[in-house]
Amino acid sequence: xxxxxxxxxxxxxxxxxxxxxxxxxVYLSDISxxxxxxxxxxxxxxxxxxxxxLAVFMLAxxxxxxxxxxxxxxxAGSSVIRSYPPNQNGKRFDSDDMRTLFQACxxxxxxx
Length: 112
Hints:
About 25% of the residues lie in helices and about 25% in strands. By secondary structure, it is of the alpha+beta class.
């Protein structure tokens, strides 16, 4: 599957069907409150913010043996994604969480 990476003047999000996340063991409680979610055509979609939540998903996909490919969609100004409901019950990542996550990504070649 090819996902869409949305990018506006200040941030970026990977659009992922929630069912794809669940298939690799990533739930809304595993990502931060900085990602967004909405139902699009009866299908729950999650917009994973680029700084941490994208790495959580990419690591899970790598471990499941599923390569992640995406196409870019750039928007001038502010993206409509910012108006979607935030993941209010999301995880709060501290610096140790982020260090552990990024070390795992590096060791496993997630972004290579």
